[in-house]
């Protein structure tokens, strides 16, 4: 018998699977389910971009490209970054085209990190940073961001996390899952802490086009920060191109050149068809970005307002396409909340705890879903029951173990009696007396 536990790399075995996946797997095969779980645009890739990919195939462009990516694509990325974000990166030497932002992040960690180096990662944030840092033999240092700071990283928090072993800081803004953003003044405050150190910034700007307050500012825009920042970006979110698997990394020449060696041996070159489509996206896709952004913005307001109406406090997200309502008032953990919401109403949202420290007590619900689905999800009655907006009023009295009240045919009740410690109980309807529903409380 082979003992694979002994054979396989310990570091890989120690990595926990993503806490997001479980909910997709559960939702699969559930008829009528609604997913506010997956971090993926619900739009199709715009036709002119798809056409450019198709046309490249028709022309027979089916071979490898240069390792760093097509030079026309790197030229288009360079022009785009200047036009949209005032960032200057040379097409030759400063841009590497990767298999999604995901590969870009992996390469950046592996290129910068020595064993034992520490990487500061603000959380709650995207699930990949910690595991990728660990796989690069380095140590993730998780720093909890707070709702009262609008989920930004503060200079004090950064200062406290820095040690002599700190090699890099991940800046995951606009943030998945919180929707938090960091403006120029916020970044300036962090830059003040970083100046005079050798700490590198790894700026994950995959949601840079999806901001709803003002335009995105990159750490690389700030004085003295350009030379210590690696910018990771991609096509998945801005152009709704998740399946094309295309992204890029920009930064100082020696770093990009070292990274290109890893990419060359591990990947060769990013998908050719996707690269041709991406040139079209960058050169002629500004209008698509605007149209999708506007649509997201409307949904964002709708979902935030919906949660608030239901009695859940909901931070106003100003970036990406996620809301991050606080569910602490329900008395449930994030995971219980998500499990029960899915079981009761077939709506998938993701526990905040899946995104690291600071996420417990919140859930991530994306508005990269149709207005119809958002409306449906908010009207699910289980949610009303959890928030205590409806049922505590309707089920007013307990008499000899029976709950009485004016409730619709579903029931969950916040029991506020002394012995019940504000727990949520299922109430099984047992009958109707006059116009009053009667039920038995079942410890849920
Ligand atoms: N960064 C963040 C913050 C993300 O949310 C994602 C995807 N969910 C990625 C990077 C990776 O995106 P991709 O590899 O599709 O470019």
Question: Can you tell me about this structure?
Answer:
The protein is of the alpha/beta class. Among the domains are: 240 residues, 3-Layer(aba) Sandwich (Aspartate Aminotransferase, domain 2); 56 residues, no CATH class. The chain has 16 helices and 17 strands. A 7-stranded mixed beta sheet has the order 2-8-7-6-5-3-4, with helices on both faces. Strands 13-14-17-16-15 form a 5-stranded antiparallel beta sheet. The protein has a 3-stranded antiparallel beta sheet with strand order 9-12-11, with helices on one face. α6 crosses α10. It starts with a helix and ends with a strand. Bound molecules: 4'-deoxy-4'-aminopyridoxal-5'-phosphate.
Task: Describe this protein with a few key phrases.
444 residues; alpha/beta; Aspartate Aminotransferase, domain 2; 7-stranded mixed β-sheet; 5-stranded antiparallel β-sheet; binds 4'-deoxy-4'-aminopyridoxal-5'-phosphate
CATH architecture field of the domain at 47-286? 3-Layer(aba) Sandwich
Structural class, by secondary structure, is alpha/beta
Helix content: 25-40%
Average pLDDT confidence is 89
CATH fold category name of the domain at 47-286: Aspartate Aminotransferase, domain 2
Task: Please state how the strands of the largest beta sheet are arranged side by side.
Answer: 2-8-7-6-5-3-4
In CATH, what is the class of the domain at 47-286?
A: Alpha Beta
Number of helices: 16
| Distinct small molecules bound, one entry per kind | 4'-deoxy-4'-aminopyridoxal-5'-phosphate
* C-alpha end-to-end distance: 44 Å
How many strand elements? 17
Q: Strand share of the residues?
A: 15-25%
């Amino acid at each position: 018998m082979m003992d694979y536990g002994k054979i396989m790399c310990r570091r890989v075995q120690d990595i926990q699977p993503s806490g997001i996946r479980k909910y997709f797997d559960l939702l699969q095969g559930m008829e009528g389910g609604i997913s506010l779980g997956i971090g993926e645009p619900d739009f199709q890739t715009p036709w002119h971009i798809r056409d450019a990919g198709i046309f490249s195939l028709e022309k027979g462009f089916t071979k490898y490209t240069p390792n760093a990516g097509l030079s026309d694509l790197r030229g288009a990325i360079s022009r785009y970054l200047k036009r949209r974000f005032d960032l200057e990166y040379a097409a030759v030497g400063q841009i590497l085209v990767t298999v999604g932002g995901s590969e870009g992040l992996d390469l950046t960690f592996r290129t910068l990190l020595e064993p034992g180096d520490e990487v500061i990662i603000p959380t709650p944030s995207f699930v990949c940073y910690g595991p990728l840092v660990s796989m690069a033999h380095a140590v993730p240092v998780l720093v909890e961001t707070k709702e009262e700071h609008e989920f930004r990283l503060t200079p004090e928090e950064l200062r406290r996390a820095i040690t002599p072993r700190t090699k890099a800081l991940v800046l995951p803004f606009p943030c998945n899952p919180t929707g938090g953003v960091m403006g120029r003044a916020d970044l300036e405050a962090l830059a003040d802490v970083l100046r005079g150190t050798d700490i590198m910034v790894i700026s994950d700007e995959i949601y840079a086009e999806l901001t709803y307050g003002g335009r995105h500012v990159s750490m690389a825009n700030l004085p003295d920060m350009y030379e210590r920042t690696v910018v990771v970006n991609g096509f998945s979110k801005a152009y709704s191109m998740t399946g094309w698997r295309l992204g890029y990394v920009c930064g100082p020449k020696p770093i990009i050149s070292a990274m290109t060696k890893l990419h060359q041996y591990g990947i060769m070159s990013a998908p050719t068809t996707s690269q041709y489509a991406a040139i079209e996206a960058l050169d002629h896709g500004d209008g698509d970005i605007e149209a999708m952004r506007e649509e997201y913005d409307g949904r964002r307001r709708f979902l935030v307002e919906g949660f608030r109406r239901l009695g859940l406090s909901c931070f106003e997200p100003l970036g990406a396409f996620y809301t991050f309502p606080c569910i602490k008032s329900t008395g449930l953990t994030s995971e219980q909340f998500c499990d029960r919401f899915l079981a009761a109403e077939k709506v998938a949202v993701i526990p905040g705890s899946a995104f690291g420290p600071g996420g417990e007590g919140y859930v991530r619900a994306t508005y990269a879903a149709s207005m119809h689905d958002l409306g449906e999800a908010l009207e699910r009655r289980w949610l009303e029951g959890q928030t205590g907006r409806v049922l505590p009023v309707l089920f007013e009295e307990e008499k000899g173990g029976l709950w009485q009240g004016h409730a619709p045919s579903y029931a969950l009740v916040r029991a506020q009696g002394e012995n019940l410690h504000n727990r949520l109980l299922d109430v099984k309807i047992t009958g109707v007396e006059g116009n009053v529903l009667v039920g038995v409380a079942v410890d849920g």
